[in-house]
Write a structure and sequence with these properties.
Helix content: 40-55%
Radius of gyration: 24 Å
CATH architecture of the largest domain: 3-Layer(aba) Sandwich
Strand content: 15-25%
CATH class of the largest domain: Alpha Beta
Number of domains: 3
CATH superfamily of the largest domain: Periplasmic binding protein-like II
Distance between the termini: 28 Å
Shape: elongated
Number of strands: 11
Number of helices: 14
Order of helices and strands: HHHHEEHEHHEHEEHHEHEHEHEEH
Amino acid sequence: MSHRDSDESEAAAAPPSAHSAPLDLNLVRTFLAVYRSGSFTAAGQLLGISQPTVTTQVRALERQADRELFARLPRGVTPTEYAHDLAARVMGPLDALLAATGHGPAAGTAAAVHLAGPAEFLCTRVLPSLAPLVAAGVQLRVATGLTDHLLDELRAGRHDLVVATGRPRGRALTAVPLLDEEFVLVAAPEWAERLGGRVTTEGPGVLHGVPLVSYAEDLPIARRYWRHVFGERLNRRAAVTVPDLRGVLSTVTAGAGFTVLPRYLCLDELTSGALVTLHETDDPPINTAYLVQRPGAPGNPHVTLVRDHLLRLGPTW
């Protein structure tokens, strides 16, 4: 990548003048693939060209525009201000031109990627992160459900990739760690005020009169939290069960009681104060999620593209 002197930074933010030479459309198409996917490697997979070719074409476009387009990161690249401006100006017209000439996303030959996993995790983290790939032509077919059932369907060939809440046993599937999710004990502010920090000072018994909201009747997440953090067994019934953690989140945020949730799912509510952590611990329960597929190279290149994209972003969630 070219590096400009500081006295050129102001000029770098300005678009090319009307007298500038026209930009090569093939180079602009490659630029957009990098811009949308966030990496040269992913852009090459989308376009069916090698990563060195992508690098060469982006550098050629930088020379034509006399501007730097991307800054390299440890994982992928980030667009410069000029790249954001260029993408905003060319994205719509170029997409329309490619579609009209049969070279747009609709003309791609790669099959749809069949992706499955827990509904709340797919909807709040995975699918939003895949939006740039969809915009660049990747098609997705998404299924949700419990891990054991989805892994059985993966073995049967129904899915290409499954986000699993645990590592599958045996050698029939390959699994790579995707992220570690940390669990927190939370309630709405009114309950936190009533309890006044006594969960930490007196133990979990002070929650006896507070309704428990759970994912399932057998309290799988809460039981694990009690065993790991408090070193005791949880003996109580849930006041509300909702088989979707987003429903648990909204119910507790509305003031129905307390629950245990993955921190990623309630981070916005904790930041805003809509939820309060009832007990801080240096050793919270951690669950590792895995990205699972059948062994061997997939026949669909977009499966590899989606897998690599998720593995790159997973640790940031």
